[in-house]
Amino acid sequence: MNISSAAILAGVAVDAWLLAFIAIRGRRPWLQATYTACSLAYLALGAAFVGTNEGVLAALRDDIALGILLLSHALTAILVLGLIHGGALPRRRSVAFLLLIPVPLLTYLAPIERWTAATAYEGSILGGFLVLCLGIALAETVYARYSSRLLAAHSFWLGVGVIALIVAGPVYAYELEFLGETSLAGANLASPIALACFALVAVQADPFLIAPRPPKGQTKPGTLPASDAIVFEEIRPKYALRTAHEESSSGRATLILGRSTPAMAASGAGFAAVLPARHASLRALTTASEFLATSRGGLAVVEDLADLSALSEWPLTIEAVVRLRHVARGTASTVIFSTSRLTDAERRALRDLRFTWWSLPDPAREIEAILAQSFGNGAVRLLASFGRAHGLRQEELTTDHVPALLDFLTRAVTELSGVVAGTAGHGLRTQLEAAASGLRSFAAQGAEEVARGKWPSRISSEAHPDLLVTAADYWKGKEMEELFAAAESVGEREPLFERARAVFVEQLGDAGERLLRTQLAHLGKKPEELDPSDLVRIADRASIDLGSLAAVVDIPQEKARIQKQIDSIRQRLELIVEEEK
């Protein structure tokens, strides 16, 4: 076997490996199909050259060899265009496939014009088409390199691959002809380099995994404006996630992109976890684009642009945002961006894009304001008691907790039914009814309504004068301490999550609470739904997880410390279970 055959054969092996890698690793079927076809074309040309050169296979007919050569070059251009414009709409991607139209015609003319694979790059229509395909691919990479910061790094590698094909294709063919050496008959020594560069770009821009996968096709219409990108200006992405939950519940295909799975993602919306990577913004773009292209009219929620900005830098993130707006318009879909944790400069840059902009309050603050209208400064204490009872921080409070909060307050008032009667009891119940009415009214408002309405925190928190008069006989000088004490007594009967959290935090710090919440997520339960039997399962799972961590630690002292923490957590949880019996 001569050097040329050995080099081409090694390239064929690499091509086959890359083909299998993309077929297994990729998440974009249309791109996988294009990559597979392109790889097979180069692989077939290389195998045919080696087989013919070594006398193992019969020589391919010239028209067949030329047809495969034409396909390889046309598919190279199509693949490069697809990798650059992977976030484009399907109908725009299909334009690139027009390059395949001349292939059958030129293949048909090959015997007539006496074209062969050995002379393919000579001055003819055939050679012109082959060079044109590579030229289109190279020109597109150069343009993307200097016009897009988001695609600059990927365009560099695509350019490397295309230039390698040009050097090992037409340039090398002319050199062999000048030196009088045997032509490679269409085989390209640089195909492994090019396909490796293409594979690298495909993997770096691969969409994040979506689970559960929403159905493809047209979806039910939602309540949000279609063909639009909407910015939710809020401290935390509470309304963004609530809107996703509501739209998904109504039958609209919905995707949430974020770092951690929100509790409401289980309602039917698909969730894609943003992984820590340099190209997170581009992968988020391709994830949302692929989703909206297959679920036209759907909804994509980017719950935290700040994460993408931290991972990929803000200029790349803002470009991905602009491209997603074009995708939303082209698919009659909606994209929501949450400004949670963005800097002031980033918010101003986002506002300059003139997107539809909804300023939204923090539900926790508004709920406190509603309670303050009835209970004054005691609203903070009531919410603190409710949070302890349900294992919630105040900043985690959303409108979804309003029914549980009302039930909590009702039980607290019921605790006082034996000692509060007459005018004072009536005044207390009236205050509760007023607060309940305000809470229900606020919870029933959607994001669009809240964005253009009055927020409770902007309204004077004065209590209704009639309530002050009817309750004055009882509350005078007591500052509603009895109500607060009753609320705390209700909370004391439901501190299971708080007690478990205290155990984990004491042993593991802040990471302990995250571990506990992770275990709750595995059980599919909320903190307020925790019962003693769950603590047993949590103790078992936590022991296994922490035991696995201890197993990989090489330092004996650290291993002993982790094991001690495991034993302590398990013993404390078992003690809590015994106390609850």
What does this structure look like?
With 581 residues, the protein is mostly helical. It has 24 helices and seven strands. It is elongated and about 105 Å long. Mean pLDDT is 83; it is low at 460-479.
Short précis:
The chain is mainly alpha-helical.
User: Would you report the number of β strands?
Assistant: 7
The helix tally amounts to: 24
Major sheet: arrangement of strands:
1-4-3-5-6-2-7
What is the molecular shape? elongated
> CA-to-CA gap between the ends?
80 Å
The biggest beta sheet, please?
Answer: 7 strands, mixed
Strand content: 5-15%
Based on secondary structure, the structural category is mainly alpha
- Estimated radius of gyration: 32 Å
Q: Give unreliable regions as ranges.
A: 460-479
Mean pLDDT metric: 83
* Helix content bin: 55-70%
How are the secondary structure elements laid out?
Layout: H1 3-25, H2 29-53, H3 62-84, H4 90-93, H5 102-113, H6 125-147, H7 152-179, H8 191-204, E1 210-211, E2 228-233, H9 238-249, E3 254-258, E4 270-273, H10 280-294, E5 299-302, H11 305-312, H12 314-330, E6 334-338, H13 344-351, E7 356-359, H14 363-375, H15 379-390, H16 402-415, H17 422-444, H18 447-452, H19 465-475, H20 481-492, H21 496-508, H22 510-523, H23 532-551, H24 556-580
Helix pairs in contact: 1-2, 1-8, 2-3, 2-8, 3-5, 3-6, 6-7, 7-8, 10-12, 11-12, 14-17, 15-20, 16-17, 16-20, 17-19, 21-22, 21-24, 22-23, 23-24
